[in-house]
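Lab notes, practical 5.
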Amino acid sequence: MIGLSKVFPTLDCSRCITINDMDRFHLGIDTIDRLPQTGDEGIYLKQRLKNTLIEHKQYIDKYGQELPEICHWKLGATNAGKTV
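Output from the prediction step:
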């Protein structure tokens, strides 16, 4: 990450993974592309994943940090009463 920190001052491991298309969203999109039998549901999910990536980038550009749900995520934490 040396050198990249000047271009991306908020660069951390999570952001590096996203920049390199290796995050859960890109992996989901790649999976859908390889499984055409997902049909309309796959197309819908793929668009939602792409929208989430756009929102993620816009948030970092605006606030200079990861989304709160990423920054404050903890293994075994609950979300709306459900274990995630």
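Observations recorded by the TA: Strands lie at 78-79, 82-83. Residues 1-6 have pLDDT under 50 and may be disordered.
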